[in-house]
Structure formats: structure tokens, C-alpha cells
Amino acid sequence: MLDFKTCDEARRERNPVYDGRFFTAVTTTGIYCRPICPAQPLSRNVRFYLSAAAAERDGFRPCFRCRPETAPFSPAWNGTRTTVGRALKLIDAGALDDGSVEQLAGKLGVGVRHLSRLFQAHLGTSPTAVARTRRLQRAKRLLDSTGLSMTEIAARSGFSSIRSFNATFVEVYGRPPSAVRVGRKRAPFRQRDGRAIGAG
Questions:
Q1: Of 45, 62, 91, 106, which is most buried with the most CB atoms under 10 A?
Q2: Is the pLDDT of residue 78 over 70?
């Protein structure tokens, strides 16, 4: 365990070298923080712990400003890829087709802002954008491989309405889904030598 003086100097200087190596618990507020937290309690009101679990065992709550659960070497920090992977599986299962990002974050045990940061860091986009792309991919597969009506495809793909389905399709592909299906049906079959059959 680092001595009190070293920890106290590190947290007052907000030294990033110590981030994840110890946590500061504040007796007057009942919260615990990372050494880099902007909060600067008096030295006589702090205790130091080697882990977030130890601080929580003694009844302290995590700080909402510095989010100690995301400190280096914490389970959340080590498992950010795992969290994103779990989120993607839930999105594939329709979590954002009939639910919100807030509900998705709740299922994962993280905050909405933290989830958005993880998606930006690992995928370069947002959960809602990923969900939209997945819906479009499902719809495109159904358009190419089934004779389902547009209304059925929209519903099976996770769109809230046929109007939303059409608008999103036009925005991404530059044409309505019906045009994509018509184009597929009219495309000529080609023999091995490349000659078209049924064209025109």
C-alpha cells in the first residue's frame, strides 16, 4: 500500500501516473474518486484504498464526475471491448428496434454517455447508427432473398413503420426499396461465357 503522504500529494496534484493504483474516499460526502478527480477535499477528510471494491465494501459510492469504475486496470476498463460486443449482440437481437439507448445502457450496467463513448472509441459511431445499419442490412437481405411485402420486410427488419423504412432506405441507397427489388428482378441472367439471357 502506498503511504498516506504519497497518495495525498498525488491526488492533490491530480497525477495521472497514479490513476488506477489507488482510490480516494471522502468521509464527508461518502464517495470515492480517482486521483485525477477535480474534487479537492481536505486531507483530513480522505482515506485511500487499493481498489474500488475495497472502498465500496466500507460503504463509499463511486463519484459521478471521475467515474472510478472506468479507471485503468478496473474490470470496466479492461472489458470495454466486451461491453461493446455485448451491446452489438443486443442490438442484433432488436434492443434498439423497440427500445432506447438508455434501456440498452441499463442492460449493460453502464451510463448512456459512457456507452456512447465506448462506441465512438471502438467503432467510430453511435449505438443508434449501428442499429440503423443492422436494420438496413436485414432489410436488404430480405429484399434480395424473399418475396415478402415491403410492410413485412419493414417489420421483420425492425423499422417502426413503413414510412421510416422507406425514408431510411432512400437516405442511404438513394432509391426506395421497391426500386432495388425491381432492379434485381430485371437484371439479366448471364451464361458462363458472359452472354445475357432475357435482357431487354
A1: 91
A2: no
* CA dist., res. 9 & res. 44, Å (int): 13
Give residue 74's pLDDT band: very low, low, confident or very high (50, 70, 90).
low
Element containing residue 119 per DSSP (H, E): helix 112-123
User: Which residues partner with 22 through β-bridges?
Assistant: 19
| Residue 177 to residue 165: CA distance in whole angstroms | 8
Fold: same for 4-75 and 129-183: no
Q: Where are the domains of the chain?
A: 4-75, 78-125, 129-183
User: What CATH number labels 129-183?
Assistant: 1.10.10.60
CATH code assigned to 4-75: 3.40.10.10
Output the CA–CA distances (angstroms, integers) from residue 19 to 51, 53, 69, 114, in the order listed: 11, 15, 11, 18
Q: How far apart are CA 16 and CA 4, in angstroms?
A: 17
**pTM of the full structure:** 0.53
Q: At residue 193, does pLDDT exceed 60?
A: no
Interval 97-129: pLDDT, tens: 888 999 999 998 889 998 998 888 777 788 998
